[in-house]
Amino acid sequence: MNRREFLAGGAALGAAAACAQTDTEREREREEQRKQLTALQEELRRAREGRMQEELRRAREERMIVGDPSPHFVPPAKPAELNLCLQLWVIPVGGDYNAKLDWLEKNGFSSVEIPSGDWLFKEADKFMAAMRGRKLKLSAACGPSDFSFADKARRDKEVDRLMPMLDVLGKMGSTGLIVCPARRRPELPFEELRASFVEDTARRLAQRAAECGTNIILEPLCRGETPFLKLVADAASMARDIGRGAKPMGDFWHMSKEETSFCGAFLSAGENLGHVHIASLRSRKIPGVDGEADNYIDGFRGLKMIGYRGAISFECGYPTKGKDANGKDIHLSEQEKVDLIIKARDLIKKQWAEA
Ligand code: MG
């Protein structure tokens, strides 16, 4: 091997060695870069996830503050309270007003509902004398009304008929006069009837009611009794549009025919709900006589959610015991009526506790 060959061989070996060393280092470098890249990608992924989580949290907070379109619940300022009430003519015992009111107080009822109409002018003083010194409260006054006449003079006459009742009810401390805007065949088209009721007839009555310290209470009925105001939400909307002195109410009997949810109906009335009627849900008798059908728990849940503290008043009849030989109804004895009301009271208390 000459010098030139030696140098050439050495150079080749040197180059090969150098090349071999570079490949290994490059491989290590590439490995290192791969690790760094993986770590970087992992870091980015975590950062992105964290940022997304933070954005999601903020969005949720903003929706809750700005107005989440989904239902959310604001607890009532005061918790709901069960206040059981009987209409005067449903009290199961006979005797004078004192005897009837004594029975109510002794048997866990906290208020009484009275008739409206002529009874108010004839009996209010005597009745209030019997109420004196009692813990019992006076809830609403119930009777017929209709504001759907095409003739304005007839509508005005209905307003004039009810105005003096508001004066009496205000003095008695009643929660309000129950009114229905229309019965079976309204003469006015619905659009005109609503405008006339909200902007004229009911508004005049509500303003007078507010001046007297009471209310008008709008009662939705089922379709057999009216084609017009059937839903608690509509009564709530009308009461809002009428303004001060107007409240919506719900009657479980009518609601069972019209509403999709007792709870939803009461929620739509909210804190303005002024009164509640209750009856058995198949035959409109004393609550409980229709067995399992008489389930009010969903409604009571709604009443609790809105913090309802008004009366739940029995508006119903007593069942009969069949017919006698002459085809006449056989009525319950006074004791049987008492037993039925006590059972109804206990059923409602149980379902209220469960709601
Ligand atoms: Mg009713």
Task: Please describe what this structure looks like.
With 355 residues, the protein is α/β, with parallel strands linked by helices. The protein has 2 domains: 1-69; 83-354, Divalent-metal-dependent TIM barrel enzymes (TIM Barrel, Alpha-Beta Barrel), CATH 3.20.20.150. It contains 10 helices and 8 strands. The chain has helices spanning 3-66, 97-106, 118-131, 152-172, 190-212, 232-242, 252-258, 262-269, 297-305, 334-354; strands spanning 83-87, 111-115, 137-142, 176-179, 216-218, 246-251, 275-278, 311-314. An 8-stranded parallel β-barrel has the order 1-2-3-4-5-6-7-8, surrounded by 7 helices. Helix 6 links the parallel strand 5 and strand 6. The longest helix has 64 residues, at 3-66. It is elongated and about 120 Å long. Bound molecules: magnesium ion. Magnesium ion binds at residues 219, 251, 277, 315.
- What is the CA-CA span between the terminal residues? 108 Å
Strand content: 5-15%
Rg on CA atoms, Å: 37 Å
What CATH architecture of the largest domain would you give?
Answer: Alpha-Beta Barrel
CATH superfamily of the largest domain: Divalent-metal-dependent TIM barrel enzymes
Characterize the main sheet.
8 strands, parallel, barrel
Question: Quick recap of the structure?
Answer:
With 355 residues, this protein is an alpha/beta fold. It has helices at 3-66, 97-106, 118-131, 152-172, 190-212, 232-242, 252-258, 262-269, 297-305, 334-354; strands spanning 83-87, 111-115, 137-142, 176-179, 216-218, 246-251, 275-278, 311-314. 53% of the residues lie in helices and 10% in strands.
